[in-house]
Amino acid sequence: MNKDRIVGTAKQAKGALEEAAGKVLGDAKLVAEGQRDKVEGKVQNAAGGVKDALKDALNK
């Protein structure tokens, strides 16, 4: 498992918590930051998946 996948998953979780907290508190900025972190995490996780797939393909 690639480091990017781990960090990406952590960012997604952090973003989900921020978004939920923002909704509870009525803080639109916190909701937006949470959504941004979730998207960043998804992109980083996907990039890590591509790196893993390339590494596996090259090692076969």
TrEMBL record:
<dbReference type="InterPro" id="IPR036629">
    <property type="entry name" value="YjbJ_sf"/>
</dbReference>
<feature type="domain" description="CsbD-like">
    <location>
        <begin position="4"/>
        <end position="56"/>
    </location>
</feature>
<dbReference type="InterPro" id="IPR008462">
    <property type="entry name" value="CsbD"/>
</dbReference>
<comment type="similarity">
    <text>Belongs to the UPF0337 (CsbD) family.</text>
</comment>
<protein>
    <submittedName>
        <fullName>CsbD family protein</fullName>
    </submittedName>
</protein>
<dbReference type="Pfam" id="PF05532">
    <property type="entry name" value="CsbD"/>
</dbReference>
